[in-house]
Specification:
heterodimer; A: alpha+beta; five-stranded antiparallel sheet; B: six-stranded antiparallel sheet
């Protein structure tokens, strides 16, 4: 892997429109049961514009930025040897159906340890008005050959 | 929200993953890596079997806390993927989640998750920061 990608920033991703049924589908997939993920009236009664997404839903938008990194041939990350090391979401507010979200990834660190490479990145997810929604950080371990 | 004390268990749950759960998560998330649904591919890369997506384990493990606190109160959630979860074709996988108060701050609390399969921890440093005021 190319150590010089530390600090590299990729262009913001095209807007991702969060669909109500996608929120429900994702919520079912993570075995969520809370009504604010499924029931529009319950979500509105709690002050949301529509159903809200589960805490790990931002992975779907972050994934678009990780794809930029993995597709960058100059970065040299071999996807077939990538293992997810850790993951974090830091939210300003929940994602709501109807949001149009954009994400921008920065490579925060590149390290080599015991024959493996580790790349840490931060994807900042903002809404259509440019306000911060959630930051997704992850480290990928690229296993040595 | 009630007065919280460090060490207090706020939620507990048994989760079950089957191959159906993995296919469903693949579709919902867009992660179609075949190690999550094909035994032959998992074996060919030296894995002990078809594995659950780490993000499925992360996403499902927080649900007891979501139900307890409300999804809009989850401010921060992090995990380390320390051990893969093998999902058998018939038996699936059984996970146990225990959520305990790890720390109480002004306006928020840190909830620590212990997530185990057959008594072995599968997530490390699994911490959820929950808003407690308002």
């Amino acid at each position: 892997m190319n150590p010089e990608i530390q600090g590299r920033q990729y262009p913001p991703t095209p807007p991702y429109l969060v669909g109500r049924e996608k929120v429900r589908e994702f919520a079912r997939a993570v075995q969520a049961t809370h009504p604010h993920h499924f029931d529009v009236e319950a979500a509105r009664a709690a002050g949301h514009a529509d159903v809200i997404a589960p805490p790990t839903f931002p992975i779907v938008i972050q994934e678009l930025t990780l794809r930029q990194l993995l597709d960058d041939e100059t970065a040299g990350v071999d996807f077939s040897r990538v293992v997810h090391g850790d993951q974090r979401f830091t939210a300003t507010r929940p994602i709501v159906a109807g949001d149009e979200l954009t994400a921008q990834l920065t490579v925060t660190s590149v390290k080599s340890l015991a024959g493996n490479d580790m790349v840490a990145s931060e994807s900042v997810i903002t809404d259509a008005s440019g306000e911060h929604v959630v930051t997704a950080t992850s480290s990928l371990v690229v296993r040595g050959e | 929200m009630e007065q919280l004390e460090v060490g207090q268990v706020v939620a507990e749950r048994e989760l079950r993953f089957t191959r159906d759960s993995l296919v469903r998560y693949a579709g919902a998330s867009g992660d179609f890596n075949p190690i999550h649904y094909r035994d032959d591919v998992a074996a060919s890369v030296g894995l002990p079997g078809v594995l659950a997506h780490g993000m499925l384990t992360m996403g499902a493990a927080v649900q007891p806390v979501v139900d307890w606190a409300g999804p809009e109160r989850i401010l921060d959630y992090q995990v380390r993927f320390t051990r893969p979860v093998v999902v058998e074709p018939e038996a699936g996988a059984a996970l146990r989640v225990v959520a305990k108060v790890g720390r109480v701050d002004d306006g928020s609390a840190r909830i620590d998750l212990t997530v185990t399969v057959a008594e072995q921890t599968v997530l490390g440093k699994a911490q959820v920061v929950v808003k407690t005021e308002g």
